[in-house]
Amino acid sequence: MLASPAALRSRGLLGMNRRNVAYISRYNERRLYPLVDDKKLTKERAMRHGVATPTLRDVIDTQHGVRDLGERLNHLSRFAIKPSRGAGGKGIMVIHERDGEQFLKASGQALTLDNLQRHCSNILAGLHSLAGAPDSVIIEDLIEADPYFESLSVEGVPDIRVIIFRGIPVMAMLRLSTHASDGKANLHQGAIGVGLDLASGRCIHAVQHSRRVHSHPDTGVDLNHIAIPDWQNLLTLAARCHDLTGLGYLGADIVVDRNRGPLMLELNARPGLAIQIANGKGLLPRLQWIEAQENIPENAEARAGMAMAEFGERIET
Amino acid sequence: MRQQPLFFLAVSVLIIIGVSMMWLRHDRLGIPLLPENDTPVWLVEARIDFVALGDETLASLSLPDDPPGYRIISEQAASPGYGFSRVNGSPGRRGEWSKREATGRQTLYYKVQFAPGQNGTAQRNGSAAPPSEPQQIIWEEPQATAAADLLETAMRRSSTPASLTRELIKAVQSPNDQNAALLLDQHSPQQLVVRLLNQSGVPARLAMGLKLEDARRNQSLQPLVDVYIEDTWHLYDLERGGQEGITPNTLVWHRASGPVLEVMGGQNSQVRFSMMRQSIPALDLAQSQASADEPLGYISLYQLPIEEQGMLKLLLLLPVGALVVAFMRIVIGIRTSGTFMPVLIALAFIQTTLLPGLTAFLTIVGLGLLLRGYLSRLNLLLVARIAAMIVLVVLLTGLLSVFGHEMGLNLGMTITFFPMIIIAWTIERMSVIWEEQGAREVAIQGGGSLLVAIGAYGLMQLGVVRHLTFNFPEIHLILLALILLVGQYTGYKLSELYRFRSMAEQD
Questions:
Q1: A18: nearest CB among B490, B497, B503
Q2: Are A13 and B500 within 8 A, CB to CB?
Q3: What residues pair up with B272 in beta bridges, in sequence order?
Q4: Hey, which of B18, B205, B407, B445 has its CA 20 to 30 A from A118?
Q5: Do residue B492 and residue A280 have CB atoms under 8 angstroms apart?
Q6: Whole-angstrom Cα distance, residue B352 to residue B413?
Q7: What gap in Å lies between CA B328 and CA B126, rounded to an integer?
Q8: 3-state secondary structure B98-125
Q9: Which residues pair with B77 in a beta bridge?
Q10: How confident is the model over B392-443, as pLDDT tens digits?
Q11: Parallel, antiparallel, or unpaired: how do β-strands B232-236 and B92-99 relate?
Q12: Domain with CATH 3.30.470.20 in chain A
């Protein structure tokens, strides 16, 4: 029923307390948090550092602005409404297409303009933000999933979570939504986590509900044969995310767009620990290896290369 | 691990200071380390408030005079600018405050300490001279008929003044008696019994008693019936039915004719009581501190007014709750909704006791969630929705109190101890979690919060804990050190051993 602490330690598993004390509070300066907690700011920074993100279409700052939401959305049919300072992926509404007056979600659920306005005013009032602080709404282009990724999951777009420590990618996982997770990519809601080999972007291990799986329960795709195309570029993009925030311990969510390639979706200064279950490996040995390095290259490509060389599968098995 | 040595030094210093101060105070001042339940001392403070009219002012308060079951250890009046004297006269023992000129709001204090037991002169009240005659009672119609009727029935069923008293109390308390119901419109039950007894020729009067409960504030006196039977006065507490005597925790404050409080040259006067329990050594300490200039005494809380001491008693329990929350969240890994909400709930439980508090809390939150389901369809802005939730929670509380009272449950007062705004927020968050993450998550976080709250309550209501936190405030340095230590814990949480169990199984 319970694992012994010794067994977990021997696998290098990073626990939440240790993550908070030894990594987040030591390597992440408090004053930098707004950069990742506020998507508006993240996007501005990302543009300056040449990190590609989904195109920003609109920002609503006041309840007053919600009234003409209809006009604001006139020229958009596929878009996502997000709280700028949402926590844990909360409050994100994804509209896939329009059907006359109605807006359709990925699941096919139809929403009226009224529904969207209410959602926006909730966001502005701070329902989804940390500590209920007033927030703003951002409206951005929907990601046009790369066909390869589209075939992997149902509903939502698969994204890749990369943990980056001192600018070096440490571990990566592909998250596939399932019917059980209601199109959401949260592992604890039933999404599949696919651990990826940092050297090649190939699947090394996959889990759903903490149990090992080999195929997607809804699409039947063989998970063991997943290999992410254009892996090196994706890792470089992840490494660059460190430069735009200055945070030492960071999680980046990356999607692959069919037209624009890898896009940074959002950053997280307190990335979760489930990535270890998906990879079947603990983070600690890799983090400690990086802590022991004296020289970390300035160049993002070089850091991605370091990760591919050091944390590839062949070294660890 | 750069600041580790410094950190542990700081923690050890805190612990050493805390422990040595505790020991010093225990050793030098004799404060017991464990609560001593056998010799409680009650410290009662009467606070008189009135608005003076600008002329000579005289406030006269009836003082307890050898109350049955208690003996007075010390008494003391505090009132700046007032002359104070105790008067023993025919209307019993009274305290009189006087001043030549007083304007505006005035506050006078009278503090008295009681220990259980009797002074040698037991029943002195009883042997006091009886009133010459029973009072003349005049009724108006239709009360006169009802009173005569009631009295006649009781007379028929009784043979002595004692049995008459018993029968009258029964009749007054009987819910179906039409005569009693009519008379109770204008008189309290105690008043009515006294009037009827006097009418039948048995001398009787109203006495006033105080229910002693630890750390209560703003209490008022409760009326008792005092009957003159066979050359002594006998007390009847209507809460005990027709039985003679009073409950052991009732302190008889006023047992004479005349009003409890009389103010000349002032208006809007009122007297309220605060009380608290102490143990004997704590009392000695309080006295020794008043005289000797013991340096350790400065940290003591005993000099504060009892009203504030009572509040501090509760406040000083908060750190214990905070420690429990820190431990449960960091070491055990229980998820709660709202970080320190459980402590507030636990504090409310302390006032309500566990079971009624738990029932009330669950009912309110459950009903609140139902109502919130409807509110969410109204498309309100968040702040307005929470504000609406607060109104609904307050209304629910009121309704539940009435309902509970009807069903004979004493839920009434207990619910009002809960922090309404916290409850409204809890309902809001729970309902959002429900919509977004399902009922399971609600159960996990809600259950977690309750579990932590019950844990904190369990610790906070322990006699030892209450005794230590109040009598040894320096123990909070130790609590602080423990919380700092918990904050440095980098091992796995208990919940993570479950969460990552699959990692240990694979090879």
A1: B490
A2: yes
A3: B47
A4: B445
A5: no
A6: 8
A7: 58
A8: EECCCEEEEEEEEEEEEEECCCCCCCHH
A9: B110
A10: 888 888 887 777 777 665 554 555 666 777 788 788 888 877 877 778 888 8
A11: unpaired
A12: 5-51+146-316
pLDDT of res. B291: 47
ipTM value for the complex: 0.78
Give the helix ranges, DSSP H, for B157-216.
Answer: 161-173, 178-184, 189-199
Q: Where does the pLDDT of residue B290 fall: very low under 50, low under 70, confident under 90, or very high at 90 and above?
A: very low
- Read off the pLDDT of residues A196-225 as tens digits, 9 standing for 90 and up: 999 999 999 999 988 889 988 888 888 888
Report the percentage of chain B scoring pLDDT > 70: 85
- Tell me the chain A residues in contact with residue B487 when contact means C-beta distances shorter than 8 Å: 21
List own/partner pairs for B138-147 with CB under 8 A and 24 or more apart.
B142/B182, B143/B182, B143/B183, B143/B186, B146/B178, B146/B179, B146/B180, B146/B182, B146/B183, B147/B179, B147/B183, B147/B195, B147/B196, B147/B199
Maximum C-alpha span of chain B: 99
For tokens 């994100």, the residue is: A92
Interface of B with A in 156-195 (CB under 8 A): none
pLDDT tens per residue, range B38-55: 567 788 888 888 888 888
Q: How far is A8 from chain B (nearest CA, A)?
A: 6
Quick one: closest CA in B to A10, which residue?
B504
B226, B207 contact by CB (below 8 A): yes
CATH topology of domain A56-141: Dna Ligase; domain 1 (3.30.1490)
Q: What does the alpha-carbon distance between residue B345 and residue B157 come to, in Å, rounded to a whole number? A: 52
CA distances from A234 to A50, A159, A200, A265, A302 (A): 13, 11, 11, 12, 13
**In CATH terms, is domain A5-51+146-316 a member of 3.30.470.20?**
yes
**CB-side exposure of A144: number of CA atoms within 13 Å?**
7
Closest alpha carbon to B101 in B49, B50, B56: B56
Q: How far apart are CA A208 and CA A194, in angstroms?
A: 9
Query: Is the domain defined by B39-129+207-220+248-301 classed in CATH 3.40.50.300?
Result: no
**Dihedral angle, C-alpha B58, B61, B65, B71, nearest 10 °:** -120
Tokens of B391: 């109104």
Question: Which residues, at least 6 apart from B140, have a Cβ–Cβ distance to it below 8 Å?
Answer: none
Give me the pLDDT at residue B123, please.
45
pLDDT for A167: 93
- Cα separations (Å) of B261 from B49, B92, B209? 11, 13, 14
* C-alpha span between B172 and B187 (Å, rounded): 11
Could A125 and B381 be called an inter-chain contact, meaning their C-beta atoms sit closer than 8 Å? yes
Short-list A256, A284, A262, CA closest to A165: A284
